[in-house]
Amino acid sequence: MEHIQGGVCAAKGFMAGGVHCGIRKNKSKRDLAMIFSAVPASAAAVYTTNLVKGAPIYVTQRNIANGVAQMAICNSGNANTCNADGEAAALQMCRLAAEAAHVKPEDVIVASTGVIGQPLPIEPIANGVAPLFASLSDHGSAEAAEGIMTTDTRLKEVAVAFTASGITCRLGGIAKGSGMIHPNLATMLVFLTCDAAISPAMLQKALAENVKDTFNMVSVDGDTSTNDMVSIMANGMAGNPTIDGEGADYNAFCEALNEVTTTLCRMIAKDGEGASRLITCRVEGGKTVKDAKLAAKAVCCSSLLKAAIFGADANWGRVLCALGYSGADMDVHKVDVSFRSAMGIISVCEMGAGVPFSEEDAKTILLEDEIEVLITLRDGDACATAWGCDLTYDYVKINGDYRT
Amino acid sequence: MEHIQGGVCAAKGFMAGGVHCGIRKNKSKRDLAMIFSAVPASAAAVYTTNLVKGAPIYVTQRNIANGVAQMAICNSGNANTCNADGEAAALQMCRLAAEAAHVKPEDVIVASTGVIGQPLPIEPIANGVAPLFASLSDHGSAEAAEGIMTTDTRLKEVAVAFTASGITCRLGGIAKGSGMIHPNLATMLVFLTCDAAISPAMLQKALAENVKDTFNMVSVDGDTSTNDMVSIMANGMAGNPTIDGEGADYNAFCEALNEVTTTLCRMIAKDGEGASRLITCRVEGGKTVKDAKLAAKAVCCSSLLKAAIFGADANWGRVLCALGYSGADMDVHKVDVSFRSAMGIISVCEMGAGVPFSEEDAKTILLEDEIEVLITLRDGDACATAWGCDLTYDYVKINGDYRT
Known about the structure:
- Two copies of one chain form a homodimer.
- By secondary structure, chain A is of the alpha+beta class.
- Chain A folds into two domains: about 1-270, 4-Layer Sandwich (L-amino peptidase D-ALA esterase/amidase), CATH 3.60.70.12; about 280-400, Ubiquitin-like (UB roll).
- Chain A has helices at about 55-65, 85-100, 125-135, 140-145, 200-215, 250-270, 290-300, 305-310, 315-325, 360-365, 395-400, and strands at about 1-5, 15-20, 30-45, 70-80, 110-115, 155-165, 165-175, 190-195, 230-235, 280-285, 335-340, 345-350, 355, 370-375, 380-390.
- In chain A, the strands form two sheets. In chain A, strands 1, 2, 3, 4, 5, 6, 7, 8 and 9 form a nine-stranded mixed beta sheet that branches. Chain A has a six-stranded mixed beta sheet with strand order 13-12-11-14-10-15.
- In chain A, helix 7 crosses helix 9 (about 315-325).
- Chain A is globular, with a radius of gyration of 21 Å.
């Protein structure tokens, strides 16, 4: 497996693009994105667990119930959630996209992201869809990635090549997600494409399993969004024998999927609203995977720890505090904690109590932009990794006046 | 029942005080507090549910297991948590206080608050306890309240008078709490005193019931502290017939207790770290009390909503989002949301969807320093109230470099 260029267009037969259609006032920001497969593809998705769901979630769920999709359309600037005619608007988006591409409206994955509770104006989309379709290209991944961004500051795209039955396949993705991110099934918008041939059932299985360890382990602010969705289309154009059961090819697919989703997770956490630092919390020695995950997530979600990391302050007491209320079954008197970055590693707590350390060395380590919090529980063999970011002035600034 | 002056000294026979003993570097900040009852008192307490507990928690639990205490000692500046000899230090605090007051060490309630994971130096306390005891007075509540403060910006004290069997009794309290506050049993340090005669069993029952609707419904930052404790001493000096069962006197006691604790809750939330606004979330029409509480707490805990309130932005979509992931059983299509303050009330969402409203009027309402988020679920008769505060630049500033 190797990383390659191209994002969602790395896989054969996929084109993508993004335009400014007018949902956003800022004309320099693309607000409508499209991904199109030359042939119908196996499709799968996972959705937010929030009871309040965006209208596009319901429409997409119905559209890909048969395991087939050929394109995706997504706008930013308006979540099409908690408004009167949201489903009609989402269905209309599907029809408009399908007409432009001469496919069936039921083969469209639809998504929206942005402000909750305002009617989605359909005119900009109606006007924008034809030029958008005309602009699609096999190097349009970045335009699509920009089109789905909200408060994101960086494009998020990645792709890998892998081998199934000796055939080279490609799997890539784009993501948006910066705030309102918390572990609870899918926690952002992610569109994945692949040219491997794989049955819809195995595709859904692979995706559902994968998100448990990837997108479900990312938290920016503890708020689970109403519009989260991770979707994948696999069009089979690589020509491999269809993966329709477990085995070496399925494992290779899952490994590629995990590489792409893990990379996107790190990108999302690092670009968390206002974030200056990526925090990766790695827990080892947990009694069960559930305990290890609870522990890792609680640390990444702690506002106090996040603020301390922003200040490059090795306040490990907040790590212990978060472990203590995490709900994980553990013996707090056996816990070790270290901080690690490109500048080195420093042990700050052993067997649940502080050890002397150089505050100066700790500061040097914590001033890097990627910080690891390493925790050993000494309760078993289970491990887990969670991703988050620091809590900064800019998070407050961004969210203090989001709508204007 | 009426509000009266005096805090923890309002009840007959209680004296209090606070001094700077040297745990903190800042000599102008008192860091050691004491409350003393002229006679042994019925005692009860509730404690943090965090698995990581401060050493004083364990010592106090043992000391008041017999339902009796005569004094409380508490330092700020160091939590005496996650360090090697914490329990020895907490026991030593009890002995020092007991010696000064000529009571038994087992009749001392001990507490610490401040940085986690650093050894508690006992010398400042050993030197400070005698002058502290000598300084106790029946108007020393404010000094004690200052002695327990950490990042608090305001003293928190309150007292009421009530009648039991025709006898006037008094109940008062002091509290500290600003960060690391989240609903999960006691969530801060609170010392309550009362001169009513009440059995230890009824005192514990009243306190345990009360915190479910009061201190368990306050959140500043979602972090449950390691050192939380709410304690109460009732010395019987008012001369009422001992309350040893349910009835009118017990109800009067509970009502007074609720008035004091509710007032302290509002004070704590309003003085949350960096807070500029008190947020009170009132949920009505819940299917069960549990559902109403889950809903109210989720709204008060949402970082996104807290940041929006800081910005006086009527971003009610974030209220819906929080309700959706709260875990409460509800029909999100029947939810109404209004914002209210001293400047008026404005409806922003009805039946789960936005209604047109004046952004200008909303801004005027949200610029007040006490904001109510009113939610109607139309699912039943259950109600709940939660308290929180906005998320501001200062929260990040305070916690970015807490230890220095």
